[in-house]
Amino acid sequence: MSKDNTFYFSHDYNARSDIKIRNLILKHGALGYGVYWMLIEDLYNNTNVLPLNYDLIAFDLRVDKNVIQSIINDFDLFIIDGDYFGSLSVQRRLDERNEKSRKARESIAKRWEKTKTDTNVLRPQNNRNTIKESKVKESKVKEIKESTTDVVDNTDDDFSKISNSKSSIKKTEPEKRKKSCAKKKK
């Protein structure tokens, strides 16, 4: 079963402490407790109404028919209405879930009504909601522009002068070191 088709229901972590459940466990053990939760799952899957067909339920759950009859009838865990049964606690939880869904639908409807009158609520995908401001000060931007302009204005002659002056610096540094080493030896 894929997770997309799975629904959840709340299961009280202390359900086993309820006196009705304790009596069920006393009589039928863990088997009875497991069958009870299987019936609850089936009720959730069927909007809290299942046909009161003990033979079919016993076959479906692979449990003796007498156990199914006892679990449904003897512990006041289910309500029986003619040929059907359900659970008051399941119904209460379904009602709570339906109420939450109803409120969510109303909230969404109100938002959509607002968008019909306020066209600025939904922005086009290509517009940004915020405008990011530059963190660089204007004076820094001005300095950068001026320095890049200077570099662009330099001619090839200026470049060769700079290049030659760097190579002459490299040549003179070792000569200076030689002279300083010679002075130290003396």
TrEMBL record:
| Bias type Polar residues, positions | 118-129
Region Disordered, as annotated, extends over 115-186
Q: List where Basic and acidic residues composition bias occurs.
A: 130-148
Q: Which InterPro entries match?
A: Lin1244/Lin1753-like_N
Basic residues compositional bias, start-end? 177-186
Lin1244/Lin1753-like N-terminal domain span: 8-81
Q: Where do the TM regions start and end?
A: none
The protein's name is: DUF4373 domain-containing protein
- UniProt source species: Flavobacterium agricola
